[in-house]
Specification:
With 518 residues, the protein is of the alpha+beta class. It contains 16 helices and 20 strands. It has helices at residues 3-12, 72-81, 129-138, 146-149, 174-177, 188-193, 244-252, 267-271, 301-310, 313-320, 350-360, 377-388, 401-409, 427-433, 447-456, 462-479, and strands at residues 18-20, 52-57, 86-89, 94-97, 100-107, 110-115, 152-159, 162-167, 206-212, 216-221, 235-240, 258-260, 276-291, 325-327, 366-373, 392-399, 415-420, 482-495, 498-499, 515-516. The strands form four sheets. Strands 1, 2, 9, 10, 11, 12, 13, 14, 15, 16, 17 and 18 form a twelve-stranded mixed β-sheet that branches. Strands 5-6-8-7 form a four-stranded antiparallel β-sheet, covered by helices on one side. It has a two-stranded antiparallel sheet with strand order 3-4. The chain starts with a helix and ends with a strand.
């Protein structure tokens, strides 16, 4: 890749800042293994590696099909069994070979990818250029992938192991966009012979064994993986344990090796246990409210501003996150290119909120619905109480995550409580703010915002791009289709001897090189 583009991409990476914590002295953090690094068959202490590593998850993956896995647990699973053209090492900020052994930019909007010869899918088929073409064609109409794949003007095979990708226009972020597990390369043969299950056949480090919805996922090491000699754990089991205390007890009893997302009020139990390690990381996950700007209520800007002034973010953090969060002024990840929160915005001010209610035509108040995931009910109940102070009576429509996704897709919401994590590029916020894109759950449309995002992808000058994204956030702060609430903190606990996990601020951790020494 051209030097200038490569340097810019390095600036765009989000790397997880990892901090271990305990009630006394801090313990060492886990460090991610570099993909392809040399390792030995036993631990440096002389002991062997544990054969099976068990991860306790707080939320359930819904599928092992890479193109359908849009939630964090699903992406954790698909990242284990699939592989994209390029791999992003989130701890170094470097783009590394994946299915493509190497690649170069041959024109302003053209890239050539050279695939690993001899790389295998889990069904024994060789990974070839035809599989890349099939994968991207399959995802062209997929809600989660079509905006990125729609940027391609032509994709062709130069030979069995070489692919040329041409974009409709310059996008300096494009190589980093396609590192997401959503763009993992699938087997054309597997998908065409078995449309229902073919998308679970990958070419990644582990092979899927069992996927029991809302229970567990098991997988074993793929011996023909190009870097199999450096995979220290033979089998993984990901268990869905939704109840926080049950997940913590499982870790304390060594029934699991990793406990993801323990309750903040319970993390001291991990920190005080000498056989366990507590870790924390600032998260890119942003919790927010969004109005359906296409609805009669949601299109009222003064009303949206009134709600923004009536929400006390600190109280929400105290109840919903047990105090483990930071107030957000912008629906943009901290550390992501263009992050800006220097504007005044609409802060907590009940008198101003009441004045705006009158301006909006609702001096006597109103009743409206708020939709939310069942996991976020405590935060929504706080908001319900806060808005009652300015005459808004919220009716809570609580549902599971699948039901909420469907409800949003039908444009049925009026007010929504949700959370969002972004990847390594501005593609994340672009999908949220640009007219008609997949993650725009406010159904917001502003031609100037669309124009700024379109222009930002065409230039390499970082300062110019930052100025454009600053303007986007200033517009959003005034129009408030979204009300950013807070950034979360990610906790996890593990047994002593656990190491090798690659972190990511969005929570899509990479476990393939993880191990536990015995």
């Amino acid at each position: 890749m051209k030097k200038g583009i490569a340097m810019l991409l390095c600036l765009l990476m989000i790397t997880g800042s990892l901090t271990a914590c305990s009630s006394s002295e801090p313990k060492e953090t886990t460090q991610a293994a570099t993909v392809g690094a040399e390792t030995t068959g036993t631990a440096e202490t002389g002991g062997a590696y544990k054969d099976t590593l068990i991860v306790g998850m707080s939320a359930a993956p819904q599928t092992a099909d890479a193109q359908a896995a849009t939630n964090v647990p699903g992406k954790i699973i698909t990242k284990m069994i699939h592989m994209s053209l390029i791999f992003l090492n989130t701890e170094t900020g470097e783009l590394q070979p994946g299915v493509a052994e190497s690649w170069e930019q041959t024109g302003e909007a053209t890239y050539v990818f050279h695939l690993r010869q001899g790389m295998k899918f889990h069904n024994g088929e060789d990974v070839k250029a035809s599989d890349v073409l099939y994968t991207f064609a399959r995802g062209a109409d997929n809600a989660g992938t079509k905006s990125v794949l729609g940027q391609i003007s032509e994709l062709k095979a130069l030979d069995e192991y070489t692919v040329e990708l041409s974009l409709k226009e310059v996008d300096v972020d494009y190589p980093t966009k396609i590192v997401d597990p959503l763009y993992s390369i699938l087997s054309e043969k597997a998908c065409t012979e078995d449309p229902e299950n073919g998308g679970t056949i990958g070419c990644g480090p582990y092979v899927l064994d069992d996927f029991v919805l809302n229970d567990y996922v098991t997988m074993h090491k793929f011996e023909e993986y190009w870097d199999a000699e450096n995979l220290k754990t033979n089998q993984f089991r990901f268990r869905y344990i939704p109840e926080n205390s049950a997940r913590l007890i499982a870790l304390q009893n060594k029934e699991i090796d990793v406990c993801m997302n323990p309750a903040t009020v319970e993390v001291s139990y991990i920190a005080d246990d000498p056989s366990l390690v507590l870790n924390q990381m600032n998260s890119s996950r942003v919790f927010y409210l969004s109005f359906n700007t296409g609805s009669e209520i949601g299109q009222n800007q003064a009303l949206r501003q009134a709600v923004a002034c009536a929400v006390n973010k600190e109280d929400i953090i105290t109840v919903a996150a047990e105090g483990a969060g930071a107030p957000a002024k912008t629906l943009w990840s901290q550390g992501l290119l263009g992050f800006y929160d220097g504007f005044e915005g609409f802060s907590y001010d009940l008198e101003k909120a009441k004045a705006l209610m009158a301006e909006a035509g609702y001096a006597d108040g109103l009743t409206m619905e708020i939709a939310c995931d069942s996991a976020n009910i405590s935060a929504v109940e706080v908001i319900q109480s806060q808005l009652r102070e300015i005459g808004i009576e919220l009716t809570i429509n609580e549902m599971d995550s699948a039901g909420l996704t469907s409800y949003i897709g039908q444009k049925s919401t009026t007010l929504l409580y949700n959370a969002r994590s972004y990847g390594a590029t501005v593609e994340g916020p672009r999908k949220v703010f640009v007219t008609g894109l997949a993650s725009n759950d406010a159904f917001y449309s502003n031609p100037r915002v669309d124009e700024l995002f379109a222009a930002g992808g065409l230039i390499t000058d970082v300062a110019e791009r930052e100025a454009m994204y600053k303007e986007v956030q200033e517009i959003l702060a005034e129009e408030v289709p979204y009300i950013p609430l807070y950034y979360g903190v990610t906790y996890w606990g593990n047994v002593q001897g656990f190491d090798g996990m690659m972190t990511q601020s969005g929570g899509i951790f990479f476990y393939a090189y993880s191990y536990v020494t015995e």
